[in-house]
Specification:
Layout (H helix, E strand, L loop, with lengths): L4 E7 L21 H17 L5 E8 L7 H9 L3 E11 L6 H9 L4 E7 L3 H6 L6 H13 L4 E8 L6 H13 L4 E6 L18 H17 L3 E4 L2 E3 L6 H7 L3 E5 L4 E4 L2 E5 L3 H9 L5 E6 L2 H13 L5 E2 L5 H7 L3 E4 L2 E4 L1 H5 L1 H5 L4
Parallel strand pairs: 1-2, 1-9, 2-3, 3-4, 4-5, 5-6
Antiparallel strand pairs: 6-8, 7-8, 10-11, 11-12, 13-15, 14-15
Bound molecules: S-adenosylmethionine and iron/sulfur cluster (SF4).
């Protein structure tokens, strides 16, 4: 079997910035799009020339990848050597996807789209400051399917201001109607430095988010989706290979500004802004901002922390027998493996800090 190897490509442009988002993305630098895609092309060609391994998964994320010229993005994706049957995903915002996007992506071998749906309640989308409504999502899913995309992930966020339990239940029910094969549901997180952080009146509440998590898990499970990582559910066989590679500490190369890479315990990341990235590539200089070498023990513990979050769990010896007794309702011990219980998925850090 080919050793898994992932490629991540970062597209740092959005039509506007959501006020909860801390990702490396800009809404005032569209004039850089062409130069940025040129720089990506050059950086990838260099790595391929230097013998970059053949990728088993490619993920184009952002920002909003569907905002840039789909033909140019497709050309970039096509320049990456991939294995037969590699998983190739592009993250899209529902409002910016057209038949032309899907046709260009399909021609580049893309078999999976990930839509940032966030909610299927119109009011919640407004309060999240999104540019789409529930109908836009239905339309985007139909366009993807009509264009031949086989695999769909839909991303959701829960706990935004004004979102009722009924809104959330409605979102999950409507989402199931759309029959995606993969769902990611994230608790809204207050990220430092965002406008949301400055407005405590809109901060999410832990109990509300816990209730919403349990509703999502139960409705998704009844509809045939299995939870395989705390925030991710998939129909059997539709788990995201690229995510699994990250969680199993596999090797991957990130291209573009702010992209991270990992090779056998060495992690490094690129400069954060598109301007700087473009200049460095043009000057034939390294785009690496910084790097760290993980000592073997830290790498081992990080591996356990990641695995604990998945249904693969951790070996029983990773917790002391007294902690196993103490953590009782948060874990499930089956033979030599410990996994999180449903309640434990809500309090994963309580378990993670005790891993040894
Ligand atoms: C960086 S975004 C890129 C995708 C796309 N631009 C979008 O927003 O729909 C990837 C996902 O991160 C999640 N996300 C972003 N900021 C978040 C936050 N503060 N808390 C929880 N989830 C967040 C959203 O679900 C989003 O779909
Ligand atoms: S569209 Fe996505 S990446 Fe862009 S600002 Fe909003 S959450 Fe962040």
């Amino acid at each position: 079997m080919t050793t898994p190897f992932g490629v991540y490509i970062h597209i740092p442009f959005c039509s506007r910035r959501c006020d909860y988002c801390a990702f490396a993305t800009w809404s005032d630098r569209h004039h850089l799009q062409d130069a940025y895609l040129d720089a990506l092309t050059v950086e990838i060609a260099r790595e391929v020339e230097q013998g970059m391994p053949v990728a088993t998964s490619v993920f184009v994320g952002g920002g909003t990848p569907s905002l840039v010229d789909p033909d140019r993005l497709a050309q970039i994706v096509s320049s990456i050597p991939v294995t037969a049957g590699a998983e190739i995903t592009i993250e899209c915002n529902p409002e910016s996807v057209t038949d032309e996007h899907v046709a260009a992506y399909m021609a580049a071998g893309v078999d999976r789209l990930s839509f940032g749906v966030q909610s299927l309640s119109a009011d919640v989308l407004v309060s999240l400051g999104r540019d789409h409504n529930p109908d836009t999502v239905v339309r985007a899913v139909a366009i993807a399917r009509a264009g031949g995309i086989r695999r769909l992930n839909l991303d959701l966020i829960y706990g935004g201001a004004g979102e009722t339990i009924a809104d959330w239940q409605h979102t999950i029910e409507q989402l199931i109607e759309l029959e995606p094969d993969h769902v990611s549901a994230y608790a809204l997180t207050v990220e430092a430095g965002t406008p949301l952080a400055d407005d405590p009146s809109r901060h999410p509440e832990d109990d509300d988010q816990a209730d919403k998590y349990l509703i999502a898990d139960s409705l998704l499970a009844s509809a045939g989706y299995e939870n395989y990582e705390i925030s991710n559910w998939a129909r059997p066989g539709q788990e995201c290979a690229h995510n699994l590679l990250y969680w199993r500490q596999g090797n991957y190369r990130g291209f573009g500004c702010a992209a991270h890479s990992h090779q056998d315990g060495r992690r490094w990341w690129n400069v954060r802004t598109p301007d700087r990235y473009i200049d460095l590539v043009a000057g034939d200089e390294s785009v690496e901002a910084s790097a760290e070498d993980l000592d073997p023990d830290r790498r081992r513990v990080e591996g356990l922390q990641l695995s604990l979050r998945t249904r693969e769990g951790v070996p029983r010896r990773s917790l002391s027998e007294s902690d196993i007794g103490l953590l009782d309702s948060l874990i499930v011990v089956a033979g030599d493996t410990i996994t999180l219980s449903t309640e434990g998925r809500l309090l994963a850090n309580e378990v993670a800090v005790r891993l040894r």
